[in-house]
Amino acid sequence: MISPLKTLTGAAAIALAASAVTADIKVGFIGSMSSDTGLSTLRGAEIAIEELNAAGGVLGGQKIELVTADTREDVTEGVKAYEYLAESEEVDFIISGSIDDVSLGWLPRMIEYQIPTLDTWTSYIGIIDMVVENPDDMKPYFMNIASDEALATLYINFGADVLKAQMGFESVVILAEDTAFGQAITGLVTEALAPVAGIEVKDTIIYDINTVDFAPLFSKAQESGADFIYQVSSVNSQVISSQYVKLQVPMAMTGVNVSALGLEYWEDTGGAGGGISTLSPIPSVGFELDPASQAFVDTYQAKYTSRPVMPHFNGFNAYQGLKQAFAAAEEAGGFKDVNGWNAAMSKQDLKLMKDDKLWLRYGFWDRDTVEPVTNRTYPQNALFDLEAPYDFAQPSMVVIQWKEDGNVGVVYPPEYATTDFTLPSWVPAK
Q1: E strands of 140-251, at which residues?
Q2: 176 with 211: CB under 8 angstroms?
Q3: 198: domain range?
Q4: Tally of CB atoms within 10 A around 88
Q5: Sheet architecture: strand order including 398-402
Q6: 256 and 308 housed in the same domain
Q7: pLDDT digits (tens, 9 = 90+) for 176-226
Q8: Is residue 234 domain-shared with residue 341, that is, in the same domain?
Q9: The CATH number of the domain where 223 resides is what?
Q10: Rg of the chain's alpha carbons, rounded to an integer?
Q11: Torsion angle (degrees, nearest 10) of CA 419, 243, 231, 385
């Protein structure tokens, strides 16, 4: 029997064969493939891609293909990973779950290749400063997490309203890792705690991220005479947490502790994590979810059984942000026209409601709007609200606290709180 295809003319056969092939749009993931934060971004992107493909594809029915590049949380590996995605995989769009130092490492490559890129974890304000100062070079870049200046501003309010007004704390010692993230947060907190919250900074202790014995550092913190410790830890922060509890350090410790952002924190510290409080972008553990965010978590937990069992905030950012990136690409006719994509991405705005109240908002600051509290602009950075009643957007961050019984909840701001801030049982009240 003669095949029906063979009865067609050569030109017609070629046309029919071509119509059966759908070109793929490539998305590249860059981040650590072995960390909870990196996997949160990767998995959020995977779910979004699956949903977009199941809905008929994008840009005229094309399917999205996801490729990955592991940074291993190392700056040099991060640069190689970005080069691999750009040169070997020739991706159309990159979604990042990189830590701050790694993002800073590959940013020059992004500027060179001009590939639209969304950062879902990095919060370094210096990158937003680059967007302000070099708008043409930085058009491919968006950060859909509130930058660390907004993070520090929220914490200053917590310092004034809770640490000083309720706890009676008058002074602090900062215990911070030696990273770009640590330096940025330390600088912002140091500059604002005293003049705004009325809390004196007694000392600043910087430590290497590979530190395994924190006893001498805790002793130095106690010798400072400060009322509490402000820690800044994004790498191996379960170590400082568990040692703080096991040593029964007689000072409250709060700040930024990335390991405490995941449900695995309690297990990772061997149950020695009680009393630790930390700033967290949202949604966080202990944070009440709107119906749309809960549906994402339900899908996530049905799909993945390994850690992280609950996506970190950047998993939510990846899920919603990737969909917004493709909505912008639909408007711009793809990702190649960076100017067009930038303009369309800047207009993306998703409002999620809970009990008829604005709960979460995924959108971006424009170039001209001045945020009234900090009196500066945040172009291509996630929208946030620094003052109650939070009717413009969600707060930049919340403060969560792990209790000594293993429960966790939001303690600040009051509008999002699910529990009260308390001192660990071994820390005397002031």
Answers
A1: 141-143, 171-177, 200-207, 228-233
A2: no
A3: 149-284+396-416
A4: 11
A5: 277-280, 398-402, 408-412
A6: no
A7: 998 877 887 788 778 777 778 889 999 999 998 889 999 999 999 999 999
A8: no
A9: 3.40.50.2300
A10: 23
A11: -30
Q: Is residue 57 part of a domain?
A: yes
Name the token pair of 62. Answer: 């094309």
pTM: 0.88
Dihedral sign, Cα of residue 392, residue 394, residue 399, residue 400? positive
Q: Which residue has the tokens 């003052």?
A: 387
270 and 401 both lie in a single domain:
yes
Q: Are residues 257 and 191 in the same domain?
A: yes
DSSP assigned state of 1: -
CA 25 to CA 417: how far, in whole Å? 42
In sequence order, the 6+-apart residues with CB closer than 8 A to the CB of 361 are 349, 350, 351, 352, 383, 392, 393, 394
Q: Give the mean pLDDT of 168-180.
A: 90
Q: Which residue has the tokens 């050569």?
A: 10
Q: Which residues contact 419 (CB under 8 A, 6 or more apart)?
A: 286, 401, 403, 407, 409, 410, 411
Please give the DSSP secondary-structure letter assigned to residue 168.
-
Pair (406, 259) in one structural domain: yes
pLDDT at position 429 is 85
Token pair for 253: 């410790």
pLDDT at 149 exceeding the cut of 90: no
pLDDT at 120 over 50: yes
